[in-house]
Design brief:
The chain has 189 residues and is mainly alpha-helical. The chain is 57% helix and 8% strand. It is built from eight helices and three strands, in the order ααααααααβββ. It has helices spanning 3-12, 16-24, 33-46, 52-62, 73-85, 89-102, 107-121, 129-150, and strands at 157-162, 165-170, 179-181. It has a three-stranded antiparallel sheet with strand order 1-2-3, covered by helices on one side. A hairpin with a 2-residue loop joins strand 1 and strand 2 (165-170). The chain is globular. The termini are far apart. The mean pLDDT is 80.
């Protein structure tokens, strides 16, 4: 029995981790586009709706084989599926449309196309707004805090917004003389 045949059995038994472990253990020169496609399938099937890492791995695994699998239903469906669960309906839709062109009567592909159209016409995100922006807020805080610290702040940094922009305050060792920075990071004390 070949590894591809064994992967099919594992897939039918929902043993996706076995597929992942076995294919990931292979040296890169032994991995074929077909094995990478099975690996991406296992990543997609292992992932939950909020598990972005597996969906991203699936697309990274499939992407190098775009020319090899040109016009292939399964390759396009797997790429589209991962993009869909990464909240990228705009990137998923062309893959699902290509998958449908390769297998015109596939009900799952038609359903995914409908979901993409719905998501594109009325955007709803799989991850809550708060979760999506946390990464951006973290990088803004790092930039803000770095600018204030570079200008000599050794205390707690806070920000206050107004119509004229944001102002940063540093609780300095002298509570009567806090430092202030504008949105560009310039000390305005």
């Amino acid at each position: 029995m070949t590894l591809l045949e064994q992967c099919q059995i594992w897939h039918e038994n929902n043993e996706f981790q076995k597929i992942i472990a076995e294919i990931e253990a292979l040296p890169s020169e032994e991995r074929t586009p077909e094995l990478d496609s099975e690996l991406a399938r296992a990543y997609n099937n292992t992932a939950g709706a909020g598990d972005r890492a597996y969906f991203e791995k699936g697309n990274r695994t499939l992407s190098p084989h775009a020319d090899y699998f040109a016009g292939d239903h399964l390759w396009n469906f797997r790429m589209g599926y991962a993009y869909y669960y990464l909240d990228r309906e705009d990137r998923a839709l062309p893959h699902f449309e290509a998958a449908l062109a390769a297998l015109p009567e596939d009900a799952d592909t038609k359903s995914m196309i409908a979901y993409c159209h719905k998501g594109l016409s009325m955007p709803l995100f799989q991850r809550p707004f708060r979760t999506r922006v946390q990464g951006g807020v973290g990088s803004v805080r790092e930039h803000r805090d770095g600018a204030a610290r570079a200008d000599g702040c050794r205390g707690r940094i806070t920000a206050r917004s107004s119509s004229s922009g944001a102002t940063l305050f540093c609780a300095s060792p002298s509570p009567t003389q806090p430092s202030r920075w504008d949105a560009a990071g310039k000390n305005t004390s």
